[in-house]
Amino acid sequence: MGYQLNILSPVTKEVQESYDWYEEQQQGLGKGFANEVDIFLQKIEINPFLFQAKYKQVRKASLIRFPFNIYYLLRDKDIITVIGIQHSSRHEVHWKNRIK
Q1: Angle, nearest 10°, between helix axes 9-25 and 29-46?
Q2: What are phi and psi of 45, to 5 degrees?
Q3: Residues 33, 21 contacting (CB under 8 angstroms)
Q4: Does 1 have pLDDT greater than 90?
Q5: What are the phi and psi torsion angles at 60 (to 5°)?
Q6: Helix (H) or strand (E) segment spanning residue 97
Q7: Which residues of 13-97 form beta strands (DSSP E)?
Q8: Domain 4-96's class?
Q9: What pLDDT digit, counting tens, does each position of 11-42 carry?
Q10: Which of 22, 78, 13 lies closest to 45 in space, CA to CA?
Q11: Which candidate, 97, 98, 83, 86, places its Cα nearest to that of 44?
Q12: pLDDT tens column, 39-93
């Protein structure tokens, strides 16, 4: 079954801000961050059930190299909505208001 990945616009902004911050710390580090995010998004798109449910129907994938989590949910039968990609130290309420 093919899934469609839908990334909310605030999430794209959060990733860009994190990318920029890592690039300021060390050139190329932001690219490493973006690559790892892309790898995990591909894993989620292939099999959204790979990662466990964290909060109700929201699932959480934790990056390996960077302390970030990807929060997503499966809408309908074939649409995956990414509602948050945030640093693991941030409070989860940040993405909880995006659940509808």
Answers
A1: 150
A2: -65, -35
A3: no
A4: no
A5: -130, 125
A6: none
A7: 53-55, 58-62, 68-75, 79-87
A8: alpha beta
A9: 999 999 999 999 999 999 999 999 999 999 99
A10: 78
A11: 83
A12: 999 999 999 999 999 888 899 999 999 999 999 999 888 999 999 999 888 766 5
User: Tokens representing 97?
Assistant: 């208001």
User: What is the model's pTM?
Assistant: 0.89
First to last CA, the chain: 24
DSSP 92: T
The answer to whether 35 touches 29, Cβ cutoff 8 Å, is no
Residue 76 confidence (pLDDT)? 80
Q: Is the separation of the CB atoms in 37 and 69 below 8 Å?
A: no
- Distance CA(73)–CA(79), nearest Å, equals 8
